[in-house]
Each structure stands twice: as C-alpha cells, then as structure tokens.
Amino acid sequence: MSKRTFGLCVVQVGGIQPEDSRAEVVQRLVSLMRSAHARGADLVVFPELTLTTFMSRYWFDDQETIDSYFETEMPSAETAPLFETAAELGVGFYLGYAELTSDGHHYNTSILVDDTGRITGKYRKIHLPGHSDNKSELAYQHLEKKYFEVGDLGFGVFESQGLKIGMALCNDRRWPEVYRALSLQGAELVLLGYNTPMDVPGWQEEPHTKMESHLLSIRAGAYQNAVWVAAAGKSNTEDGVYMIGGSAIASPSGEIVARAQSDEDEVVFASIDLDYAQSFRDSVFDFSAHRRPEHYSIIIDRIGRGEPLPVPGFNS
Ligand code: ING
Description:
single chain, alpha/beta, Nitrilase/N-carbamoyl-D-aminoacid amidohydrolase, 9 helices, binds D-[(amino)carbonyl]phenylalanine
C-alpha cells in the first residue's frame, strides 16, 4: 500500500527587529514560503508572534503602544499576501501573532490556514510564562503575563488538508498535558511556534540546556503521544537579545528527523509518513488499552505541588 506522505516544513525566522515593518516581515515570510514550496512543502509552520519583534521583552505603560503590536484583523492588508501565496502555491500554513479581538481581549494566538488560503483553526496560548510586574532593573523582561490573557479556546484539533492538526505556542511545548489533550482528540500533527530568549527573568540555565530542554520537550511530546511535532523558532538576536534556534520536526518515535543548522532564516523540510504513527498507537501508546484515568485525578485536582497522597498501609 502506498504511503501517505506529506511535505512538512518548519520555517525558522532569524530575528525581527523593532524597526522592521509588518510589510517587510510578510515579504520575508512569503519568500520563505516560496522556498519551502520549492522543497516540496504542503504545510509551513512559522514561529510564534512572527509579525513583530518580541514585544514582551519591554515594559510599555500606554495601551496604544502595546496595541500597536497586535492584529485587529486577520488577514489584514499587510498579511493578505501570505494567504494569497498559500492559495497560489497550494501550501497551508501556521502563523503565530498577537491578536486583539473586537471586544478588546489580547491573546498570543496561532491560526491554521489550508492550501486554499482558508483559516481552518485558531488557538490562543494557555501557558503564559514570565511575569506581569515591571522588573525595571532588568535590561530585558518577559512580560507575557502582562500583555496576554490566558487563551479561551482550549486545545483544539482541526481538520485541514485531510489531516487532524493540533496547535500550541512556545511555553505550551514544555507541558505534557498539552500533547495528551491534543492526541486524545486524534491529532496526527502538533504544530507550534516559539520565541525562546536565552535570558528569562527567574530562570537561568546553561545555554546548552536551553536547547536540550527545547528538543527534549518536543521529542517527549511526540513519542508519548504518537504524533508528529513541528516546532518553528523565531531565533537569533532581536534588539540585543539572543533567542535560540533549533527549529525541528520530531517523529512519533521521538526522533528529530529534521533540524535547523543555523539560527537565521531557514527552511527545514521533512517528507513525513502519516501512517508511521499507527504502529505506536496500536501498541505501546494504545490509549484505550493501557491508560488508567481513575488513577490520574491528582493531575486535574491539584495546580501546584502539595502533600503526598495516602497509600493503603502507608502515608495514612
Ligand atoms: N518562551 C519561552 C519558552 O517557554 C521561557 C519562555 C523560556 C520560559 C525559558 C522559561 C525559560 O520557550 C515563550 N514565549 O514561551
């Protein structure tokens, strides 16, 4: 039987400077989409917040400046070329951006667009890292908890281009619950964009472990849920702050099958076998056969760490 192959691309974007206009950025993304199509892409994953510089590194007092980083319509005149090119080439895409809704809500959002240029799914980031207070003593901050609200759409799985596709954003990839929620809905692919600065207030780690924890997270999510994970980074130096690259595609075996070689703009391509996950789902991760939710309630009942649970004959 012929394999169900699919051309999957993660497009790494090597830094968007504060002075870069949306029009310039979209031109860059359209050019990268064309390169990805030439490599055989059916679907392109762009990073998180890929229309502007990573504004959460700055403290802004006035709402007008904050809102200038957000999109009030999608597509807009500036972003329309992405949708037009997708339809022209027959390539779908995932795009991360800052969303300001008509009723005034601010989300860190991603959309899924199919190969006709139609929006087939939306996700609003649920795990917001960083802080909301002004750490003015720091040269760079991580103010996602100030600028964005927790997403209100849950973890959705969308039919697009004949596949079941789930989405996540950046810090989400570090939380196992995300992949499990998506794979329990039949997701075959999990797409995510990220901006991972080397310096984040309150969490310093060795540079090599920054890359390791990123790759470990997507590999674990892929393996433990028998899904393909495609992660696209906004990387390199933005306004003096370095963000890691490492854009990569992880297979249901947990292996990285394609990975960026640079921290610049880069198209990373893999022709994936969509049936490859089935043997994992029929055996080691046959959820219906092996999962025991009656023992998992603590995962839902508790938010933070607490006391050990009683065990018959122990910890009574
Ligand atoms: N970026 C980072 C991430 O989770 C972060 C935030 C980095 C938190 C490093 C802690 C340590 O990759 C976003 N945007 O979530």
